[in-house]
Amino acid sequence: MEELQAASHSRIVQEKFEVIGIKYQEIAEIFRLLDYSTSGRIELNRFAASCRELVGGAKRRDIAQIEVTVGSLTQHLNCLETRFGELESDISGLHSLTDNFIKNTVNVLTGFDGKSVLA
């Protein structure tokens, strides 16, 4: 991404963008969507192919749009996976707190220690 930003300041690169009819903001968005791992890095060949597909005709644009959509969905799923992991951890902690509360409260209120069982 850093290289893309630096290149976008070059007059030659700006002219190439104009020739193919694509704006830097669109190219930056393509980069972001293809960067599934959010590492700030993607393969140059893949990036160039996606840009060519977007300006190469309706069928090619549709294919590129599908790839971009899949990339976007992948990013959203990764976000959800992280959030679900956090929720599982929170729920586990609440479960432990609830168990401790019940054990301590029952013992204080009733004197029952949970060890002896009536038959």
Topology:
Blueprint lengths: L1 H7 L2 H10 L3 H11 L9 H12 L2 H53 L9
Helix pairs in contact: 4-5
Structural account:
The chain is mainly α. The protein has one domain (2-100). The protein is built from five helices and no strands. It has helices at 2-8, 11-20, 24-34, 44-55, 58-110. Helix 4 (44-55) crosses helix 5 (58-110). It is rod-shaped. The N and C termini lie far apart (71 Å). The model has no long low-confidence stretch (mean pLDDT 81).
Order of helices and strands: HHHHH
Classify the helix fraction into a percent range: over 70%
Please tell me what the overall shape is.
rod-shaped
Structural class: mainly alpha
Low-confidence stretches: none
- Give the domain tally: 1
Number of strand elements: 0
* Separate helix tally: 5
| Radius of gyration computed on alpha carbons | 27 Å
Percent in strands: under 5%
Distance between the termini: 71 Å
- Average per-residue pLDDT, rounded, comes to 81
Major beta sheet summary: none
